[in-house]
Amino acid sequence: MRAVLVRAFGPTDDVEVGEAEAPLRLGTEVVVDVHAAGMNPIDWKTIAGKGAAAAVAPLLPWIPGGDVAGVVAEAPYEAHDLQPGDAVYGIANHWRTHGSFAEQASVPSLALAPKPESLSFELAAAVPCAALTAWDAVVRIAKARAGQRILIHAGAGGVGHFAVQLAKYFGAHVATTVSSRNVDFARSLGADEVVDYTRDRFEDALQKVDVVVDLVGNASHDTGTRSLDVLKHGGLYLNVPTGSWPEYAAASAERGLRSSAVKVEADGSNLGIIGRLIDAGDVRVELQHAYRMDEVHEALAELRGGHVRGKLVLKVR
Q: d(Cα 89, Cα 267) in Å, to the nearest integer?
């Protein structure tokens, strides 16, 4: 099969498109004919030798890619809920094995859900990792609800644009930080307060909040440290990008605040709920660009540059 191959960790320009063995299905895994694969920061980080590089090093040449949207080619068994021909989307276990930047991928059945009927494969591939990360932060951990004030940093990005919509759907008062070009976009997602971080300091512009969902951390402008200034006593700080602020827990505790990291759960049940919200028109998907597989170098360069509105996707078929 045709696939994106990482033969050695290093510059993203060194990846190549070539031929690889088709995946073997084990246990209750599902072989998916991949139509489109979403792109996430963990992809370029792992290619560069960070991220999950230590786990996948024995697999070199390795196929990256977590988000997957396509059609079931092989089911786990005859009476399984997912059967050949079913349109699905979900998350491949690319932290431990080969990923979705290929014509086929073997995916745990519990990490898949029916593809939303209202979405193309390209749009569907933009959903799983980002939307489930947002779900875990906003719904599962923060328990978004009426009367709650939530600040979401980078509200126009992949995780951020889902987090804003989910927090608003569940009744919270939502504030977010974005760049100048994304102010109107953030408002269109339902944000009650939008701070242009290139012009204003959010800690000066906002009232105290109950929860901060930090998709930036101290990797840029000390966003994590400054976020503690805007939290109410006993409030909750959630740090999402791995390594973006290693000291967040101690700093939060010193101020009487709760804190936690957030790691995405490849949960097909929650992904099914998100799909129903999308089909009902309560959540929308922003796709900045869909690249062909042979444009993977351009796609990875844009991904690594940051400032993507919504998501980037590779078109596989």
A: 11
| Widest CA span in the chain | 59
Q: Rounded CA gap, 221 and 195, in Å?
A: 15
Q: Report helix, strand or coil for 217.
A: helix
The DSSP code sequence of 103-137 is SEEEEEGGGEEEPPTTS-HHHHHTSHHHHHHHHII
Cα 82 from chain centroid (whole Å): 24
Q: Are 259 and 238 in contact (CB under 8 A)?
A: yes
When pLDDT is averaged across residues 132-151 and rounded to a whole number, the result is 98
The per-residue pLDDT for range 160-175, each reduced to its tens digit, is 999 999 999 999 999 9
Q: Output phi, psi for 187, to 5 deg.
A: -65, -35
Q: Are strands 287-292 and 104-108 parallel, antiparallel or unpaired?
A: unpaired
Residues with Cβ < 8 Å from 112, sequence gap 6 or more?
Answer: 30, 32, 82, 88, 89, 90, 268, 271
pTM score? 0.97
